[in-house]
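Weekly structure sync, notes
Attendees: PL (lead), two postdocs, one rotation student
Agenda item 3: pending single-chain targets
PL asked that the sequence for the first pending target be pasted directly into the notes so everyone works from the same version. It is reproduced below exactly as submitted, 459 residues in total.
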Amino acid sequence: MVYFKLNGLGYNCGYDLKSCPDERKSCLDCINRRLKQLGFEIDASLEIFQIDSYEKELKMKREVIWHKFLDILSIKYIVIIEKESGLTFINYAVSDVEIDTNLLSGFIQANIIFSETGNIAKKKANINLENHVYEFQYENFNILLKNGDYIRICLILDEKASDHLRSQMFQFLYQFEIQFENELINFQKNGAVNTSEMIDFLVKSFNIKLVFPLTIAHSIPPEYLAAINENPIQKAIFNIVKEILLSKSFFYINNLLNKVKKIVSINTKIVLYEIYQLLEKKVIIPIKLETIAHNLENKKDAFDEKSSKLKFISDIVINNGDLTELKEKLNTIDLITAKKMIKQYLKKGKTAAKDVAYEVASKEYNKALFIAKEFKLKDDIIKISQIIFEHDYKSKKIELDFVLEMAENYEKNGDFINSINSYQKATKILESFLIYNLLDADSQIKKLKKKIMKLRENI
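Predicted structure, written out during the meeting:
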């Protein structure tokens, strides 16, 4: 017979307080009786919470997710040790903190032996003999360890373990030894074990996906997209994530929370809960670190290939503002040739600007300016500087108009978070306009900041 303990279940009794036929009895007694009728065994550990509104239930769920997130942020390493031999067969790094797990394993074994013989110093370890839980310090970390029948599970933490994390560890140990009993027995016999499924189970049990790099799923069911559009916070999160992924191949929840916090003053627990819903529905999905490494390598190869092709487009190539090669060429030319080159670069710049290729135009103009400075052509320097000044202003103005249009569209659609995000971008662009001594830039900045404050009040 398999025996289950069920947690996190809700029950709708079907009545409100006014229409309840058992109005003289307490709700808790009524629920107890009904659970027994359904075949449940009730013990003293049962906790029943009466939720009299959807808002209170939602608040409780947000608290649960928040504490899960704090717990996983606290975990730095998870180590699983075979009980008899003391060998470590799972060493899972949750963070980038480096720990010598061989030394740690020896330290743990020594502390357990000393504690069992009663020789360990009370200041160094706190032992709960009833549950066989060990707590002690290792370097700057807190160690939480529990023995099972076959293994020892060890959590290396930043802070003292919460009650929820302790309970989570107990459940993991019990379920892990049942699910992988045969593998653990084989490990005791021959020292060989395949840990891939064990690690997947560990990741799921401790919600480690909350600190994984994440991205948007390639395929999202239409009903999920419709639900996201109906939820203003999820909609804003989804759009912000898409914006992040334009420049990066992944993001982290912590960074996303900080970005949202900069845009709007909204309870972080609310934002995290909505992110978690997107994660549960697989709208947002974790990326394995191996995949990230592979993608970065592919990007590097593609960049190298592109660079090698571009090298033959022109006799002079400037990469990332490095003008060394151009400077070397200037050492071999005379003044007449230099002026011809200036005209050529200015012509290329104007052509690129007409085609709205502003970055290309900027590079060409700066090449022309560099030559003029090298040959100390004062009139050309003034002329080209003016062209660059006007070009930069024009490109920033186009960017500003585009961002403001996005902000207004978001505002019209009730997506206030993304609207604020776009207005903040517009504000930064306008701040760069101050160098042009534009009289209305400062007043526009003030207007946008007031608009942002009003939008925040709507959230």
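Discussion points:
- The CA atoms of residues 211 and 253 lie 7 Å apart.
- The chain has four domains: 1-50, 67-210, 222-289, 396-458.
Action: rotation student to compare against the earlier draft before next sync.
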